[in-house]
Design a protein that fits this description.
The chain has nine helices and ten strands. It is of the alpha/beta class and about 250 residues long. It has a single domain (about 5-250), classed as Rossmann fold (3-Layer(aba) Sandwich). The strands form two sheets. A six-stranded mixed β-sheet has the order 6-7-8-3-9-10, sandwiched between helices. It has a four-stranded antiparallel β-sheet with strand order 2-1-4-5, covered by helices on one side.
Length: about 250
């Protein structure tokens, strides 16, 4: 059965001007992202990973090329149009969590939901369902961000990212600021939602995180140097680890 394409790029390029010099960060990238995939973008620092994620998600515009979402060319949208695209179709999880200190955990999530859905009762029900899925109890939902742990805060960030049922969840180094245990909890959360059909695109330097993906893209000097298909994630799959290790070695990682 043919997989549904969610996002497609054609000749995607991004150039920055740095002290009068042109820095070509992305170079003529042709890429298709599919519904239900857990796509991981890897590469050395400066390879263009985050720039690619920002372009795909409408947080930045390409210098050249085209990005299509559901047969609509989003790379032609105005800044206001891109904001609407992000609001209606994308969820975001960053290394820095950016919860609002003056709001409770629940209100942080509801504030994002109310941008799309004015039915607060339905939003609260949706939030409670997501909180239960990430093991955030009701008493924690009443707390302020400064009163919870980093791992809890990142799981709250995932709930906030999913409150509007986005087609794609973009994650930029979501475990980068967490210790090993809390990082694993966040990876388990992302994996759980992906297994339920949520499409995920994640940038990471971490091989443990990368193993969660079914599709690994390796970026080097602004181009996709190679791709590795790992299939569905299974805990303790040593063959998966070995396949990814061999691929990364071939890429010069």
């Amino acid at each position: 059965m043919q997989r549904q394409i969610l996002l497609k790029t054609e000749n995607l390029s991004k150039t920055f001007s740095n002290g009068g010099q042109q820095q070509h960060v992305l170079k003529n990238i042709d890429l298709e992202l599919y519904q239900g995939d857990f796509t991981v973008i890897m590469g050395a620092s400066g390879a263009g990973k985050s720039t690619l994620l920002y372009a795909l998600s409408g947080m930045d515009t390409p210098t050249l090329g085209k990005i299509t979402f559901a047969d609509k060319i989003i790379s032609d949208l105005s800044q206001d149009g891109l904001a609407v695209f992000r609001r209606d179709h994308c969820g975001f999880v960053f290394q820095q969590i950016y919860l609002i200190d003056g709001m409770s955990v629940l209100d942080n999530v509801l504030s994002a939901g109310l941008l799309v859905n004015k039915d607060k009762k339905a939003l609260v029900a949706r939030a409670k369902e997501l909180f239960a899925a990430v093991d955030i109890p009701e008493d924690t939902q009443k707390k302020f961000p400064t009163q919870i742990s980093g791992g809890e805060a990142q799981r709250v960030g995932i709930v906030r990212a999913l409150i509007n049922s986005p087609e794609i969840l973009f994650a930029d180094e979501p475990t980068g600021a967490l210790n090993s245990k809390t990082g694993l909890d966040v990876l388990d959360t992302l994996t759980k939602f992906n297994e339920q059909g949520q499409s995920v695109v994640m940038v990471t330097h971490d091989m443990r995180s990368a193993r969660r993906g079914n599709r690994i893209l390796y970026l080097k000097d602004g181009v996709i140097l190679g791709e590795c298909n790992l299939g569905k994630y299974s805990h303790g799959d040593t063959a998966r680890h070995e396949k990814l290790s061999a691929f990364l070695k071939d890429m010069g990682w």
